[in-house]
């Protein structure tokens, strides 16, 4: 998963900027509503998806009133718009694979718009399953290495709480977990008063595709275009970003 921490950090930085403009709150609200509705409970203690959605909303400083209102709306069942989650799969520049997670009340409209964005960005929207096998579901938590005073104790605690791997890249600890252990690990860090840089259950590529700097920039532009769409919650890719790109971004 070389380069994953760097890419995840850029996504996190972009989401923080989006949050300042209020762009991300609508997407977080959709996640909360769907988690409350599909999980069958507005109680995060009995609804893992909702607990994860709440944690992510708080990470981006979504006001508690907004969180509560979204949960209440989702748990209310039949009232309001009927959002559903849809995963689109396809290919980007340089033969890279992309998975696009959308939440929409009009899947025909969203599908047409996603197809158009793929085409205009030099990609190709494929059939369900065409690239999904290249990814696996993981919990990913990033922690600044400088925050850890006792590295050995930190690693032992994280593994004991359910993590399956810890990697250190450029001063950042990347903790990977099975989806079912994600909240346990996050709660363990919180109990030890360790702040996290970002945390989410995501799709991680099983292997990465190396592309040129020019192709990497095209892929990133395509991802940004997709993520700017109101219906699109997340975009996952197996692109390997060249180090020099990140040096220019710093």
How is the secondary structure organized here?
Layout lengths: L3 H18 L1 H16 L9 H12 L4 H12 L8 E8 L5 E8 L2 H14 L3 E2 L9 E10 L6 H10 L4 E5 L2 E6 L4 H10 L6 E8 L3 E2 L2 H15 L4 E6 L1 E2 L2 H7 L1
Parallel strand pairs: 8-10
Antiparallel strand pairs: 1-2, 1-3, 2-9, 4-6, 4-7, 5-6
Helix pairs in contact: 2-3, 2-4
Number of strands: 10
Secondary-structure-based class equals: alpha+beta
The proportion of residues in beta strands is: 15-25%
CATH level-four homologous superfamily name of the largest domain: YebC, transcriptional regulation domain
Using the coordinates above, name the CATH class of the largest domain.
Alpha Beta
N-to-C CA distance: 21 Å
The domain tally reads 3
According to CATH, the fold-level topology of the largest domain is Alpha-Beta Plaits
User: Low-confidence runs (pLDDT<50, min 5 residues)?
Assistant: 1-6
Number of helices: 9
Oligomer: single chain
CATH architect. name of the largest domain: 2-Layer Sandwich
Give the H and E element order.
HHHHEEHEEHEEHEEHEEH
Q: For the report, how would you describe the main beta sheet?
A: 4 strands, antiparallel
* Overall pLDDT confidence: 84
Radius of gyration: 18 Å
Global shape: globular
Strand order of the largest sheet: 3-1-2-9
Helix proportion range: 40-55%
């Amino acid at each position: 998963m070389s380069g994953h921490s760097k890419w995840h950090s850029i996504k996190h930085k972009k989401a923080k900027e989006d949050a300042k403009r209020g762009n991300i709150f609508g997407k977080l609200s959709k996640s909360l509503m769907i988690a409350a509705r599909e999980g069958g409970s507005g109680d995060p203690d009995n609804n893992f998806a909702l607990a994860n959605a709440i944690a992510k909303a708080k990470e981006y400083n979504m006001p508690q009133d907004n969180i509560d209102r979204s949960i209440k709306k989702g748990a209310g069942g039949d009232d309001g718009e009927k959002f559903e989650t849809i995963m689109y799969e396809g290919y980007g520049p340089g033969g890279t694979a992309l998975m696009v997670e959308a939440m929409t009340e009009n899947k025909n409209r969203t599908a047409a718009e996603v197809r158009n964005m793929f085409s205009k960005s030099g990609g190709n929207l494929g059939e369900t399953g065409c690239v999904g096998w290249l990814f696996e579901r993981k919990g990913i938590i990033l922690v600044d290495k400088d925050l850890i005073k006792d590295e050995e104790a930190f690693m032992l605690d994280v593994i004991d709480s359910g993590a399956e791997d810890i990697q250190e890249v450029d001063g950042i600890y990347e903790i990977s977990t099975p989806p079912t252990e994600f909240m346990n690990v996050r709660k363990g860090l919180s109990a030890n008063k360790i702040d996290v840089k970002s945390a989410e259950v995501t799709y991680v590529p099983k292997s990465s595709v190396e592309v040129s700097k020019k192709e990497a920039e095209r892929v990133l532009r395509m991802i940004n275009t997709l993520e700017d769409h109101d219906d699109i919650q997340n975009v996952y890719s197996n692109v390997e970003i060249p180090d020099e790109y990140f040096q220019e971004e710093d």
